[in-house]
UniProtKB/TrEMBL annotation:
SUPFAM superfamilies (alphabetical): FAD/NAD(P)-binding domain
Coiled coil: none
Molecular function GO labels: 4 iron, 4 sulfur cluster binding; metal ion binding; oxidoreductase activity
Pfam families associated with the record: FAD_oxidored
Transmembrane segments annotated in the record for this chain: none
Keywords: 4Fe-4S, Iron, Iron-sulfur, Metal-binding, Oxidoreductase
InterPro entries: FAD/NAD-bd_sf (IPR036188), HdrA-like (IPR039650)
Organism: Puniceicoccus vermicola
Protein name in the entry: FAD-dependent oxidoreductase
Length: 452
């Protein structure tokens, strides 16, 4: 860029508004779980969240389903910890539905109630919350992060901590600190969700066929499969409507994000208008009653860490010496041409944009394979990091591996592991890469985060 395309700011002093042992950037369930684990091990913790509520994709983006916590055969539970603790809290408020049989999803929850429970558990553990705040810069000292610079309604402020976890999804602290990131050539698509009234008894697939002749008129993608509805526990008359996938969107780009929000809302309204046009005149008129605050984002950037988890390792169910999380969700790759699902039992599904499903096998030796895959601690340690870990979708994984580990029940575990690792490092006054993988695994097992 030429010089005239910039402005110059004067140097300024930034007030330190808080000091603590651990600062977590990103208040998703992953980020909150990291904070809670560290707090339970005696650390003072702060969480910085850009939204007005905690929970990230599960709440602000209204992606209200957590997937299976069991092994491939459904015989042993392999995911526990704070995921199940929050599910038990939601049960007390009649805000969660258990899906049986478990196909991929196991729990469907009320996103608003989950946000409330995450806030409650944070307050119970004296975690300092900074809501509607963004990490915009960082200060380094002798190779360590010395402060995270945030901006919120009070202005530009600094949080000084001994250790940091970037659970922001897009790597805001990671990049501000000068650490390396990667961006896949083909990003998985984004969605926008909306709460809708008047569709509880609507057969989505049936009416999708009836409205296809209206797609061009309403500017709706003709090669898109029918939108799908999820129930919304505690509100039996409402459905969570998952909008069409928007491809080619870099959700870490502010302008692209804005355009996707606008287009997502337009497509939802177009869908409801088409539905109104084909429904019988004597049925309730469907109506959008609330928008998700954020896009449902599958992928933006990844940290470059000490180990990149590969699809080959994942599908071979490699068990690492420093395994800190485990799961069974299939390799799930979304693209402009459709979706590919590869299950650990050897099955493969290819779902075209038109909804046609083709079944095959990617291997034929399912009986001799393990029942779950694992994620190593090294995939959370950025190269050259001394006091910074990542958690959530920033973990280092190739496209195939990330297609499986990206779901929330898996990423929740990375938060618990990162928070526990920081506690161990803090007590030993050590760098994050000096934490013993074996000791970390034992601590996670002791606290119920790691069940196997």
């Amino acid at each position: 860029m030429i010089e005239s395309e910039y402005i110059k700011e004067s140097p300024r002093k930034v007030p330190i508004c808080h000091e603590c042992d651990l600062c977590v950037i990103g208040g998703s369930a992953t980020g909150v779980f990291a904070a809670v684990r560290a707090a339970r091990l005696g650390l003072s913790v702060a969480v910085v969240e850009r939204s007005s509520l905690l929970g990230g994709m599960a709440t602000a983006a209204q992606v209200n389903e957590w997937h299976s916590t069991w092994d491939v055969l459904g015989e042993r539970r392999i995911i526990g910890g704070l995921t199940l603790e929050l599910i038990e809290r939601l049960k007390l408020r009649s805000a969660v539905e258990e899906l049986r049989p478990i196909l991929r999803g196991e729990f469907r929850f009320n996103s608003a109630e989950l946000a409330g429970e995450l806030e409650t558990i944070a307050v119970e553990h004296s975690i300092r919350l900074f809501l509607l705040a963004r990490c915009v810069s960082a200060k380094l000292d002798d190779g360590k992060l010395d402060a995270a610079i945030i901006e919120d309604a009070s202005g530009r402020r600094a949080i000084r901590a001994r250790y940091y976890i970037d659970a922001s999804g897009d790597g805001s602290l990671l990049q501000a600190g000068g650490f390396s990131v990667s961006r896949p050539e083909h990003l998985q698509p984004v969605n926008l969700q909306a709460l809708v009234a008047g569709v509880a008894d609507v057969d989505a697939k049936k009416y999708w066929e009836a409205m296809k002749h209206l797609l061009t008129k309403y500017g709706y993608p003709s090669d898109n499969s029918a939108p799908w509805y999820f129930t919304y526990p505690g509100a039996p008359d409402l459905r969570n409507l998952f909008g069409t996938r928007l491809n080619g969107i870099d959700a870490a780009d502010a302008d692209a994000y804005t355009a996707a929000l606008i287009e997502g809302r337009r497509l939802h309204r177009a869908y409801i208008d088409m539905l109104r046009a084909v429904l019988p005149p004597d049925v309730e008129i469907p109506s959008i009653v609330a928008w998700a605050q954020m896009l449902g984002v599958r992928q933006t950037r990844h940290a470059i860490c000490q180990h990149r988890l590969s699809g080959q390792e994942l599908l071979a169910c490699t068990h690492f010496s420093d395994s800190i999380a485990q799961g069974t969700y299939p390799v799930d790759i979304h693209s402009s041409s459709g979706t590919i699902l590869r299950y650990l039992d050897g099955r493969e599904e290819r779902i075209s944009r038109s909804g046609k499903v083709t079944h095959a096998f990617w291997h034929h030796d399912a009986e001799n394979r393990n029942r779950y895959y694992t994620i190593p601690y090294r995939s959370l340690i950025p190269v050259n990091s001394r006091n910074l870990l990542v958690a959530g979708r920033l973990l280092d994984a190739d496209q195939d591996a990330f297609g499986a580990v990206r779901v929330m029940v898996n990423l929740n575990q990375t938060g618990e592991a990162a928070g526990t690792a920081v506690a161990l490092a803090c007590k030993a006054d050590a760098d994050v890469d000096e934490v013993s993988g074996e000791q970390l695994k034992e601590m996670l097992k002791l606290n119920g985060s790691l069940l196997m």
